[in-house]
Specification:
2 domains; mainly alpha; 6 helices; globular; 78% helix
């Protein structure tokens, strides 16, 4: 095996991964940035420092990679017998569950660090839990992910590149008869 081909194969695989991740990451970046900017506008009167761009970028990469990993792990083969609406609903519920789990785990880790113990952190987390904010996060995440999944199914049904062409190509000149 040629050792020069290893960096070439690695760079080629990395480029493929970036191309595969780009559409979901761009979609989630735009969606999260819009949500976070709206949030920033809502809390502006309270002079809360909040940086939407960085949070949107990090969230987009995490969700984008998470979507691709879950698609790879679950596969769509066994669900193809169901109507597309059922597939989108089940996948959205699956991603919402992942959001709930990861968000809860992140909060538990932060609370455990502050309380200097997992048990004390869990008690502190439950005592300070804001159910309204939590449900709002889950609903927003579900809407964004559900929208992505619907667009993904439409794109799959239309064929490769058709959705991109529909939204990002100039319309053909109208012919007048």
């Amino acid at each position: 095996m040629n050792t020069r081909s290893i960096p070439q194969r690695l760079s080629r695989r990395l480029l493929e991964l970036v191309r595969e991740m780009a559409p979901p990451v761009i979609f989630f970046f735009i969606a999260l940035l819009a949500i976070l900017v709206i949030f920033k506008l809502f809390v502006a009167q309270y002079t809360i420092e909040f940086y939407a761009f960085g949070k949107a970028a990090l969230g987009a990469v995490i969700i984008g990679k998470g979507v691709l990993l879950m698609e790879w792990a679950a596969g769509k083969r066994e669900m193809r017998r169901l109507p597309v609406a059922a597939i989108v609903a089940m996948r959205t519920a699956m991603y919402a569950s992942a959001v709930i789990l990861l968000w809860s785990l992140e909060r538990l880790i932060d609370a455990s660090r502050q309380a200097k113990g997992v048990r004390a952190g869990a008690a502190m987390l439950l005592a300070n839990a804001n159910l309204d904010r939590f449900l709002g996060l889950v609903i927003l995440a579900s809407l964004v992910i559900g929208t992505y999944l619907v667009l993904e199914e439409i794109s799959h049904a239309m064929g490769p590149g058709a959705l991109r062409k529909l939204f990002f190509s100039r319309p053909a000149a109208c012919s007048t008869s």
